[in-house]
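Hi support team,

I'm opening this ticket because the web form for multi-chain structure prediction keeps timing out on my end. I have pasted the exact lines I submitted so you can reproduce it. The total is 1053 residues across two entries, so I didn't expect it to be a heavy job. Is there a limit I'm missing, or should I split the entries? Thanks in advance, R.K.
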Amino acid sequence: MTGVSPKSVSQLLVKWKDGDEEALRALVPLVYSELRRLAHHYLQGENPGHTLESTALVHEAYLRLAERNPPQLQNRAHFFAVASHLMRQILVDYARRKRRVKRGGGHKVTLDEAVFLCRGGPDMDLVALDGALNELSRLDAQQSKIVELRFFGGLSIAQTADILEISPATVKREWATARLWLHREMNRSLQ
Amino acid sequence: MMTPERWQQVKGVMQEALEIAPEQRPAFLDRACSTDHSLRREVESLLSSSNDVRSSFMRSSPHADLRLSNETVLGDFEVLSLIGAGGMGEIYRARDRRLDRDVAIKVLPRFVSFDPERLHRFEQEAKAAAALNHPNILAVFQMGTHEGAPYLVSELLEGETLREQVKHGPIPPRKAIDYGVQVACGLAAAHEKGIIHRDLKPENLFVTRDGRIKILDFGLAKLTHPERETQLTKQTLDTEPGAVLGTVGYMAPEQVRGQTADQRADIFAFGAILYEMISGKRAFQGETTADTLSAILNQEPRAISKVAPSISRAIAQIVHRCLEKNPASRYQSAAELTSTLEESAMAPQALWGSRRWRWHAWIFPGVAALVLVALPILGLNLGGWRDHLRLTTSAVPIDSLAVLPLTNLSGDPQQDYFVDGMTDELTTNLAQIGGLRVISRTSVMQFKDTKKPLPQIAKELNVQAVVEGSVVRSGDRLRITVQLVQASPEKHLWADSYERYLNDVLTLQDQVARDIATKIRGRLTPQDQAHLANARPVDPETYEDYLKGRYYYEKLSVPGFQEGLRYYRRAVTRDPNYAPAFVGLAASYKDLGVWGELLPREAASKSKLAVEKALSLDDALGEGHATLGHIHFLWDWEWASAEREYKRALELDPPSSLTRIQFAIYLSAMGRHSEALQEMKDAHAIDPVSHPSNGLLGAVYYWAHRFDDAIGQFQKTLELYPDSAIDHKYLGACYEQKGMYTQAFQEYQRQESLGGATTNELARRGHSFATSGMKGYLREKLQATVRDSRIRYVPSYDIAELYARLGQNEQAFEFLEKAYQERDHNMAFIKVEPMLDGLGGDPRFQELLRRMNLPYKLASIK
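Hello R.K., no limit was hit. The queue was backed up. Here is the completed structure from your submission:
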């Protein structure tokens, strides 16, 4: 968190909420480093066999950052929005790199990246999901955000509705159709 | 390309469609999409993607709005996620906390519980289904109600319904028949218990990823459509296009008429499904439900030979006989149907169609080379091939078989452990088939990388046929190619290849074993089927660690045991409920103890802890009981318990030659020599060339004081394994017993030089023997051993034995007492050890035997 004042964190969150993508870029290193640090911490911990859920990591990152900056991080929902987006990046990057490593090139996966191995089943193609999500965001930016929050951030319907300031019923409907669409796209990409 | 505007439109229709029951959707879409056909296609394609329960994306997403939420706990089961939902209720993935496995929970629509009579029937049927323990029927573990909604807990399946598979057109004939046989087997088992499905259809047949069929929803049909049998007249009037289509097309005419349906209605439905699998077309299909029902009552389906010309006449006859309008003209039982179907599946034409199809399936480049090799064998001209097959089906029945080490085609020697593991599993699985003698892997491994021709290998192993093949692993994909070859005259009986994901490896092994067994046996007995269906689910990484552990363990050396231990430990850390890995741990500790690397007590306690854990997880593990038997025998000296465990192990795992050999050694130590020899001979039959089965046969003769037989056997063993120190030692011991000291001395020297003795030591021993004979040699050896014991742990038993051989009984007893205190495993043999014969007359020896609960009267043996 060095070099960034707590004030700027909350400002960045508000800006991002208002649709400023630059603000997100500035937030990324803060939350990202925290997520990675936590991942690393888990791996070095006493229980390396422990299955680590990315959503659990997001929640813990929140607790830690919030502890340090209590007044600024009151809006828990915003934090999750950022963290969900980051978690998506971390996981997809990891999946890509793993692919590259498998093909024989690329650099070695570092320890704290390897922790994300635990996430998702062997049949979970994160790269395909990421591609499908990008396409979905072209069609419907809100739907893609809902998926990010629900899937990568582990947020409930109600929490998602809070963040996006829409009704839970809408989230539910949008989530249901987005899922079907993504599912079909991902299956197509497999064929 | 879809535009955002179009997406909003598609999404809108979809959201409305999702609000209504699936049956109502076609009508709704008619209205909503009107003439916009591309809109309808898009919506339908999206809606149907939800049927696919495989999507991990669906699985991992939380659904707060459903009947069960994450973390809902139903008894022992903790709900994890939703798998799918539909008109018939919702299906969740849940964790069985007691048995630590994942299960599926199906929650039925709440209306079901409003009617006590119906609920009662549901319970009855569910109980009946739970009693149906058959590999082709979904296993039901439990039922209950949650907030008024009845639910069923069942095994969790990965794969898709048969409906998904037939959607894309016909299923290759061989596969279709294989599926058919599996369905028929499941039906036969159910009918035998008086349970009739009544709603068999492709939606109710699940194909697991490894190609096993599971019949779903036994008895639920009656429940969710309680009035079906009487209300059909009403349904006939329902002319809404497509509304119930797909569920009525498989009903038997008597069901359509509302008459009582018995098991023959299931046979009719079976015929309709087989028809559809083979031809890709429905047997009965009309524009409307009414038309379909009318077709069932009045029309004969198009002859399947017209729709699918490649199918054999025998199969066509079966299909049409199932579809007879009059129940009395159909097969009267599923059992009869099963056997007829299986017989016809063996006919050459039935196989032919699929083989052509199968060659298209090659994917891995590594296998391409194999195809080139295989083509000259398999790619004969059509007529020739048919004759070939016909010949082979009428060939002599095969009752002995060896699975040769599968070849690792991955180009990565690091994968050897994996490929060896597959060979091992395949061997074990095949050995479960009743009446089939399968050569133990320990013998077969002698032929790894051999250049010997197959007939010769078969001759050396004394088998009629061999299985050989290769494995290619690429990431998480796996391809295994196997062929069955008759040895004399050499004939290729069967070949096939399978491609799967790594996490399906266990069920794949079952499948391959089953296919081979079916090829050999024609059909499998229910017992064989049950034996073959015992794959335990395990996470692929855990399984890999386990295989690596096993690979190193089987090197049978101290570093091998230690490396094996490392991997087994890792496996149990990953999955603390994976019983086979605990058995591996136990075996490693045990052998580190037997090989003197661990102190006896430590080996015994660690080994016992691991094996008890293993058996608490899975009491049906033969190897686990065998290991517990060894511990009781070698260290606990609880003879009855040891015998009980060995017998249980042999019961669970009859083909294990190693267990049989260990049991034989136990019998020897008890002085039950003729029983021991019989067991050794049985082991030898399935394990003719391995080191244990040869060397220990010599030892059994030795303990029985049959030194001439023992010498012959050790010489034979040393021909196979010339560098085996232990066999030289025993051979020497036999000569010593016979007073042939020069030969004995030579063997001992050979033993010591193989064991790493220095030239200096050997020279000293040689000098002693030359100047003072056997006694001199033994004294020299004793001094060296005692010297050695000051630097490192030397089992007291070794010293005791040397004193006994020198006739220094006082010291011998002193050290025997120490060995007794140390719980040295060699003490278990004192009753029969010829080297201790000189102590037999001493009351102290009788006293020792008594303390160890070993029956007296050593003298009677000699």
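A quick check on our side: Chain A touches chain B at residues 49, 102, 120-124, 129, 138-140, 150-151, 154, 156-158, 172-177, 179-184, 186-187 (CB under 8 Å). Let us know if the file doesn't open in your viewer.
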